[in-house]
Amino acid sequence: MPRIAEPPVAVLIGMPGAGKTRVGGEVAQMLGVRFTDSDEVIEQRAGMRITEYFSEYGEPKFRELESQVIADLLHTADGIVSLGGGAPMTESVRRNLQKYISQGGKVVYLQADPQEAMERARRGGNRPMLAGDADARWRALYEERDPVFDAVANVHVHTRGSSPQHAARKVMDMVMEHDVHVTGASITPYDVRIGVGTSNHLAEVLGDRPVRIALIHTAPVQRHSDRARALLRQAGYEVSDVLIPDAEAGKTIEVANGIWQRLGNEGFTRSDAVVGLGGGAATDLAGFVAATWMRGIRYVNCPTSLLAMVDASTGGKTGINTPQGKNLVGSFYTPAGVLADMRALETLPNDIFIEGLGEVAKSGFIRDPEILSILENHAQQLREFNGSTFLGSPLEDVVAELIERTVKVKAYHVSNDLREAGLREFLNYGHTLGHAIEQIEHFKWRHGNAVAVGCVFAAELSNILGYIDQDLVDYHRQLLGSLGLPISWSGGDWDSVLALMHRDKKARGNTLRFVVLEGVGHPIHLDDPPIEAVHEAFERIRSAH
Predict the structure, then answer these.
(1) Distance in angstroms (rounded) separating the CA atoms of residues 488 and 206
(2) Exactly one of 435, 505, 513, 540 is catalytic; which is it?
(3) Could you confirm whether 410 is annotated as catalytic?
(4) Residue 91 falls in the annotated catalytic set
(5) Strand 317-322 relative to strand 273-278: parallel, antiparallel, unpaired?
(6) What is the pLDDT of residues 219-243, one digit of tens each?
(7) pTM of the model as a whole
(8) Could you tell me which of 360, 534, 514 has the C-alpha nearest to residue 429?
């Protein structure tokens, strides 16, 4: 059976001597795919070496042939492809690379150390563009090409001091990322990058304007904050290490005020930036500090829990808690990027991983039924999550897809309604009761667990009012329970819960407001339902009904 032509997994570009052929070959071997060097294909078509073709026909004719070969490879060379050093300087090649990227392709700019690249280029030969004083020509070409390569690529890999194998591992990690682009009428576009090693993008996302970076993190993620600090310092930033209390204890006005004082004392300006690293509470607080310091500075979120990866770090909701309720003080302020490095899940305890599945399931109920299917099919493996054996296991791909799909659900709602005027409220399915549970339990209940119970409550209310049948309510209980999530709660009295639900962000005046379902993927707003129905739904979640 003939092989079906497919586009490349990734295309490598870079200066002469950057190691495109060696690194590309290593990446291909790691992934078990073919490696294609465009220069070799050109020589096969031309029937002569590139230096000879240059000499006989000149550079314009060579670039024309090169462009034709690359156009073909971008449609047929499934695997890893490396391009000649000057290929992206041709306009037609750039257009084809941009089209390839728009269809999900990865163009990787191997950014080698100049001295290392020049030495390799001198040894390599067959480089007509370096004829004469090779080092001087290389430097001149670099000045011309680097801005173009930087703009063309959507993946940038620094290889200074790296062995070909180490550089290939970095390339492979970045190529295998899942990227979700978030945009909208009132949003400065940004990307959520999901995969192993996405924290390597930190300096790239922050840019070259900031001098000082406030790295806001909690103690339990010390290993990951150490890595982020090292990456930031290697990139030349001055890093202020800001340790905050873990979980909801870190989301207070007192903690925020302490950080504001530090930023003022350390001379943070409008061009400096914040990095939030940790769970959802840490990224919420970091975003709030960034949004309020000098009326808004750049910030990047590096979530380290499943819950933060799928929910808190994306969407631009920043905030702190007050004694009267959760997230009542905050702002809508989008990050410059979100780096969901799945390496962080290695250190995540099982119960913290499980609670994140509450938000994942919620996204399935309101928009993407495939999420529910994946959860069903892998419930046992997810429930038995073990961070120490996670990476490299079959579960890694399952979790990556769940994160990507859940982030896409959030991105859809955020892109169309940043400030929660209507559509975005659907993301609060299960949250009206969930937030009340957290408050009554003094935040000893984790958010995802409270949302899971809240989803059952919302399903019960939907059923009582005739929007869904009992089978869908039972499905809520069965699926969430199979994942190890709680499906009932008996910790608070009705009057206290009702009072807190009246203070929910969705409430309008004295009117209760809920998100309920008409079916899977079909949420609706419910304004001021009969209080008897709300009470009955509440009583149903007091036991395993």
Answers:
(1) 43
(2) 435
(3) yes
(4) no
(5) unpaired
(6) 888 899 999 999 899 888 999 999 9
(7) 0.80
(8) 514
